[in-house]
Amino acid sequence: MPVPGSIKIKQLDLELNGGCNFKCQMCPQADGRERDFLKKMPAETLEKILDDAMQYGVESVSLHGSGEPTMNSDMPDAVAAIKARGLICISFSNGYRLDEAMAGRLIDAGIDILRVSAIGADAQSYHRWMSMDVFESVRANVTRFAQMAQGTGTEIHLYHLLTDAARRDEEIAAYRKNWVEATGAFAEIWMMHNWSGGYASPYDRAALTDAPVKRSCGRPFSELLQVRAGGLDGHHGAVVACCMVLGKDGEATLGHLDDQSIAEVVGGAPYEELRAAHREGRFDDISYCADCDQLYDFPDALVWSNIPGRSYGQSKIVGGLDHRAYTS
Length: 328
Description:
ten-stranded mixed sheet; 28% helix; globular
């Protein structure tokens, strides 16, 4: 069993809530997530995980996984718990419940970066992809948050996806006009991915690469730990292989942090088998890796960004992590 000094965890992706109030077309939540993972992270489990992670050199905690964190009224308390430990705090939201009160509480708690997922460059496209006809209200929430955050240490970032590869330039221009310029937020636009083979993307990443040869995505060896709010057999705090296994959380569970330590999970047999398969190129031996498009090196996946220092590959491979870096 590895000892704490032999393990490095720089970033902890920690899900507060497994459920979501949206059913976005490009998200496995749309078809219904596994019931075991539609849970809220208990406060005591959150505290246990944070305390445990401190001994592995954690620097950044991102409150996301799949569920919508603002559905938890105590989300600002989780942010405060992270900041009290001297850590960077990031989160990911659809922005719908980001009213003035929640925005103020998050900023007061000291959140460093709030990322808002907004897929669709105009109201019609947003409604189609995000399942909710709330383009204007979410955009207003982002704009207000950006204004409230001025002069603080908090930033709000937009996360967009290219929905039509054939209209790349047109779609980038529309995102920049309708979201970035309209709100004053930092933003990034990514190519879509296939959620570990579970989603038929509108375009095939492998077909767009010059040399579609599989290689490890690097996640099994990275200094990043992905933790879900729920877990199997009544557990919470399931450690899963990566963020892309949404919809396959059960088969990708490597252990549970409600009754195990990080060292026990990271040094356990399921995690070691995942790493061995990636070292040896046996991707087909791992059900949730076999058809994942993250196995192809595709720098064009990052389409556009005005976030200083943002680059493809950050937080996936050891050494690429900073406070503006997060897996996409």
